[in-house]
Amino acid sequence: MNNHYFLTDIRRLFKSGELYGAVVGLAASLFFSMERIGLVNDNVLFSFLYATKMSGMMIACVFCALPYAASFCDDLEYQYIRYQAVRGSLKHYVASKVSVIYLSSAAVMVCGSLLFVSLCSAMGPWEGPGSTYLYESGAFHELAQRGHYMSYCGLYALQLGFLAGILSVMAAFFSMYITNKVMVFALPVLIYKILIDVSGTGKYTVFVFRAGTG
């Protein structure tokens, strides 16, 4: 990959307000996902794991796509893609865009989730009724058992971020044929729903990206 393209896209990403707004929006979507005021079962871990399994996660996928999934759409609209293609390789240009879209989506998922649990930790204890059951057989459970709750939530969110990155890249692909940005940002939700409906809710479907049990 040409470093010029990648560094340009990284600078463009961090100068954009969408990245920071997406992190706050993702945290807000997790609060919405709890469907109540206050912590679920009065503890942070249960609230976090519960929120990531409810409807708010679909909204979270939209926020993960917000920072950069529409970059192809923007470049096509302003003819920036022609300028970039002349300066270098179209293949490197596309590879850079895909990389930044994927990485930014995963970063929003992790940072937004950590913001969510940080705010929740001010409202109650990390563990409580039912929280142990939710993580005891899942990935990274040893971190939670040892009291490294923030690390556990970060890695849990990173695994969800892998899925969010894939959905955002797929939305970016379709953005080359769809000029409506609202539709582009809605695509991760539509694709996620289609994948669930087609493959079912078994262990080896999109739910493989969930680090917890259930």
**Average pLDDT rating:** 80
Q: In angstroms, what is the radius of gyration? A: 18 Å
Largest sheet, strands/sense/barrel: none
Q: Structural class of the secondary structure composition?
A: mainly alpha
Q: Tell me, briefly, the overall form.
A: elongated
What is the share of helical residues?
over 70%
Query: Could you tell me the number of beta strands?
Result: 0
Distinct helical segment count: 11
How are helices and strands ordered from N to C? HHHHHHHHHHH
- Poorly predicted ranges (pLDDT <50, ≥5 residues)? none
- Distance N to C terminus: 39 Å
Strand proportion: under 5%
Description:
This protein is an all-alpha fold. The protein has eleven helices and no strands. Helix 7 runs antiparallel to helix 10 (149-175). The longest helix is centred in the middle third of the chain and has 32 residues, at 90-121. The chain is elongated and about 60 Å long.
